[in-house]
Design brief:
By secondary structure, the protein is of the alpha/beta class. The strands form two sheets. A six-stranded parallel beta sheet has the order 7-6-8-9-10-11, sandwiched between helices. Strands 2-1-3-4-5 form a five-stranded parallel beta sheet, sandwiched between helices. It has helices at residues 15-23, 36-42, 60-64, 84-90, 102-118, 120-128, 155-163, 184-190, 210-215, 233-241, 283-300, and strands at 2-5, 27-30, 48-52, 71-75, 93-96, 147-151, 170-174, 193-196, 221-224, 247-250, 270-272.
């Protein structure tokens, strides 16, 4: 029972979780591998390859060179950095830990939505510039009773739905893997606010494009805490600039970090945070405890 961590040395993993894994009788070796040959050499006799964050060395071709590999595991939510198609062809399990960050990402998505609806960053900036008290322009949005459309209906989206219940929002959802899901175009047309929670795949890349943005209500707001390329950023910037939709809040971008000449930066009604939705005071505990459990569970089946 051998696992290799290819994203860093032993100091990258808190000691208590290293010990949990080894106490379960699992051999664990850790080393940062920066290329395909390095991964193949280091993982030659490993049954499980573990990583966090992208690793360009873990390719489909590398998997073909690792006959003992039975699973690849990325700590965290996204699978777009893993060679999933090749793994399926080879009968190799693909693992992740979306449960470790789901609640936190949902909190951030709701926070972004409410900040955008209530224009909190914009008002803060105006106050700091000497904005006159009492001359408040009317807001175009309200929370209670409005319709929130969730694109993707997994753990994070369901947490979001639970969190907004107290505001009596009408929550609808689109997910091709959920039997009672509505069509995406219908959801976009009905929603006052749309929050994206889908993985990045060939099918979801540029899922929200110019055509779909035009289906949304005139003052609709878009929140994205999934993956940047799910949204066509140029189309989004144009839609906000010309009033097709009301604004957007993004924790993820197509390029990370984004170029400073990104047209979204020029728009007042856009909030951008630096891909931090998963982080909180509980991040380390949740991230590593779920990861250690996933490794142990893999060998207990």
């Amino acid at each position: 029972m051998k696992t290799v961590m290819i994203s860093g040395g032993e100091n990258a993993i808190p000691a208590e979780y290293l010990q949990q894994i080894r106490n379960a009788g699992i051999e664990l070796e850790c080393k940062e591998c920066l290329g395909e040959d390095a991964v193949v050499e280091f993982a030659a006799d490993a049954e499980l390859i573990w990583m966090f964050g992208p690793n360009k060395g873990l390719t489909g071709n590398a998997l073909k060179r690792l006959p003992k590999c039975r699973g690849i595991f990325r700590s965290g939510s996204g699978l777009d950095a893993l060679p999933c198609a090749e793994a399926r062809e080879l009968g190799i399990a693909v693992l992740n830990t979306p449960e470790s960050i789901a609640e936190c990402v949902a909190e951030h998505a709701v926070s972004l939505l409410f900040a955008l609806i209530r224009q909190i960053p914009q008002y803060d900036a105006r106050v700091r510039k000497g904005f006159e008290w009492g001359k408040t322009p009317g807001l175009n949005w309200h929370i209670t009773g409005r319709t929130l459309g969730l694109v993707g209906y997994g753990r994070i989206a369901r947490h979001v739905e639970e969190m907004v219940k107290g505001f009596h929002m009408n929550v609808i959802h689109y997910d091709p893997f959920t039997p009672d899901s509505m069509e995406l175009d219908e959801l976009l047309a009905q929603s006052d606010y749309v929050s994206l929670h889908c993985p990045l795949t060939d099918e979801t890349r540029n899922l929200i494009d110019a055509r779909r943005l035009k289906l949304m209500k005139k003052n609709a707001l878009l929140v994205n805490t999934s993956r940047g390329p799910v949204v066509d950023e140029n189309a989004l910037a144009a839609a906000i600039a010309d009033g097709t939709i009301g604004g957007a809040a993004l924790d993820v971008m197509v390029d990370e970090p984004p170029q400073l000449d990104n047209p979204l930066f020029k728009l007042d009604n856009v909030i951008i945070t630096p891909h931090v939705a998963a982080f909180s005071a509980d991040f380390e505990k949740n991230f590593w405890s779920c990861s250690a459990k996933k490794v142990i569970d893999f060998f207990s089946k």
